[in-house]
């Protein structure tokens, strides 16, 4: 089976990790959101790409889901003493990723080439691609005006009320080198349980057309997001946050939908929107959960 | 007594530290070589300025004389795993200095303003100035061609044979904001025991005129440099490395010279070049040595 997975941050990374343990390297390509990339202190930072790579490599902090395991914060502590910006936490190990990537980007290398080399260095065997080699910037329209994504997400801790989103640069940005080829070869596309608004929509907007069966996994369980502001965003835009809302979000693209056992009463309604559904345990607490959900989803795809 | 000290790296920093413990903040300005500043991985790095500041702040690594005490190397380890440049060691704590300075320089702030703020953050009460706010780059002419200073010094470990030096940018660069004023107010100028060729000469070239009594301390004791390539440089340029060679180096500018007890047989010869000399213990092994030498030098200046 040949799979392309679309992933954002922590939730997407976990399922991608489960898929990587269930599929051979040549069977899986993970296309990662780069809409929340940003430049900070002269560093080009790709939060979702790093979360996915660190997770696949077994380097991720198991407590937070993002950042590095066994991280130290000597850079950050000393930066704060100098009065530097402290709202975005940069660990000492993590810094190597940002500084070396920035250096190579400035020398004209593409983000996909750099990502490929970093994956090789980290021992990641499955293909990980940024959605685009060109910048796309997720802008959050809020009651306090438009904010760059990390400004909204980290600096303002998702406090401003969301009114909508804009993906700056999306018209000019094409899929990264290799992404189109992977989609052409894919038997199916999996939309990982990432934020539909700010993790998956940017990828879908860049990729534009997917002429393959698409299966989406709800990142919302029991009306709340497992992690991050997805539920808050739905609510602020006047949509009751639920697996049903997510299914509706993907109604024009997905032909299969995976929801949690906790939401089984929504199954009939979702079936009205998307033909096929799988009701299973979707919460990934342990390493085993990741593999189990991946296998469930792959089996579901096989049955479509 | 109002003193301006000219300093390079480790040796200069040690005497500057001794002077700072012997003079009130308003009595001492330290002007530091920036000729070995360089850009590396997008960071603007000022090795001598950082060594002087870390030393004055009590943050310096006591083993090496440069870098930070209790430094960690998680950035460096991870950079090496990614195949990044490893010849210039960047510690995790030290990184905060480079990244924040680079960020502020890119926003158009001057190196002297940034240095002033960093000194305040580090609790340094005496004034520390870069020699210039404009770039001056020490270039080393060697038997393998011209090399940028850090390329010669760190990357090539001073292996190529030195034929001469060039200070790129020196004609356009003026003294940093405050340097001229400090020199105008000074009763005397102390040339710290730093490398005459690559630490002090760049400062003298930028400052141009010093119409004050100048006292120099030999960085060469018993024919060898306490630290660094000064003796090697003299030898490769056909000059026997000695306190006498250093005195000759400063013959047109210094009116007082401090040499080590070990070199007392050179005293008569040095007196022929520079009128007044002080023979004393100049090797600074301990914190007390720094203060003792500083007090000796200040007393010597008082006697001139």
**Which architecture name of the domain at 3-37 and 48-58 and 125-137 and 169-303 in chain A does CATH use?**
3-Layer(aba) Sandwich
Name the chain pair with the biggest interface and residue counts per chain.
A-B, 31 and 31 residues
CATH topology of the domain at 3-37 and 48-58 and 125-137 and 169-303 in chain A: Rossmann fold
Q: Note the run of SSEs of chain A as H and E.
A: EHEEEHHHHEEEHEHEHEEEHHEHEH
Multimeric state of these chains? homodimer
Low-confidence stretches of chain A: none
Helix content of chain A: 25-40%
Tell me the name of the CATH homologous superfamily of the domain at 3-37 and 48-58 and 125-137 and 169-303 in chain A: CofD-like domains
Instruction: Determine Rg of chain A (CA atoms, Å).
Output: 18 Å
Work out the helix count of chain A. Answer: 12
What's a quick, concise take on this entry?
The structure is a homodimer of 304-residue chains. With 304 residues, chain A is an alpha/beta fold. Chain A has helices spanning 10-20, 47-57, 74-81, 92-106, 111-121, 149-155, 179-185, 196-207, 230-236, 243-249, 267-273, 287-303, and strands at 3-7, 28-32, 38-40, 43-45, 127-130, 137-142, 145-148, 162-168, 188-191, 214-217, 220-221, 224-225, 256-260, 276-280.
Tell me what the structure shows.
The structure is a homodimer of 304-residue chains. In chain A, helix 4 packs antiparallel against helix 5 and helix 10 (243-249) packs parallel to helix 11 (267-273). The first copy, chain A, has a 7-stranded parallel β-sheet, with helices on both faces. A 3-stranded antiparallel β-sheet of chain A has the order 7-6-8. Chain A has helices spanning 10-20, 47-57, 74-81, 92-106, 111-121, 149-155, 179-185, 196-207, 230-236, 243-249, 267-273, 287-303, and strands at residues 3-7, 28-32, 38-40, 43-45, 127-130, 137-142, 145-148, 162-168, 188-191, 214-217, 220-221, 224-225, 256-260, 276-280. By secondary structure, chain A is α/β, with parallel strands linked by helices. Chain A is built from 12 helices and 14 strands. The two termini of chain A are 13 Å apart. Chain A binds chain B through residues 41-43, 71-72, 74-79, 81-84, 91-97, 99-100, 102-103, 106, 117-118, 121-122, and chain B through 41-43, 71-72, 74-79, 81-84, 91-97, 99-100, 102-103, 106, 117-118, 121-122.
């Amino acid at each position: 089976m040949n799979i392309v997975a679309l992933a954002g941050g922590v939730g997407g990374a976990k399922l991608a990790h489960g898929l990587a343990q269930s599929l051979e390297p040549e069977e899986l390509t993970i296309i990662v959101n780069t809409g929340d990339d940003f430049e900070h202190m002269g560093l080009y930072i790709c939060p979702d790409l790093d979360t996915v790579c660190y997770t696949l490599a077994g380097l991720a902090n198991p407590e937070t889901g993002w950042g590095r395991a066994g991280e130290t914060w000597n850079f950050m502590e000393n930066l704060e003493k100098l009065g530097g910006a402290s709202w975005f936490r940069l660990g000492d190990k993590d810094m190597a990723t940002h500084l070396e990537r920035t250096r190579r980007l400035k020398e004209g290398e593409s983000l996909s080439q750099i990502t490929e080399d970093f994956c090789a260095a980290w021992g990641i065997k499955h293909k990980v691609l940024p959605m685009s080699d060109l910048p796309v910037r997720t802008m959050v329209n809020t009651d306090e005006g438009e904010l760059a994504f990390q400004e909204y997400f980290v600096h303002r801790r998702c406090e401003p009320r969301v009114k909508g989103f804009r993906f700056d640069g999306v018209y000019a940005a094409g899929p990264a080198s290799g992404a189109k080829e992977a989609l052409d070869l894919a038997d199916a596309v999996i939309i990982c349980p990432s934020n539909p608004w700010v993790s998956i929509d940017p990828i879908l907007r860049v990729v534009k057309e997917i002429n393959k069966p698409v299966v989406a996994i709800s990142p919302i369980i029991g009306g709340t997001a497992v992690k991050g502001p997805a539920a808050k965003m739905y609510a602020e835009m006047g949509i009751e946050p639920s697996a049903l809302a997510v299914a509706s979000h993907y109604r024009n693209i997905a032909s299969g939908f995976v929801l949690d056992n906790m939401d089984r009463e929504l199954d009939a309604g979702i079936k009205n929107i998307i033909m096929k559904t799988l009701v299973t345990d979707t919460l990934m607490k342990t390493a085993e959960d990741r593999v189990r959900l991946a296998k469930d989803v792959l089996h579901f795809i096989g049955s479509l």
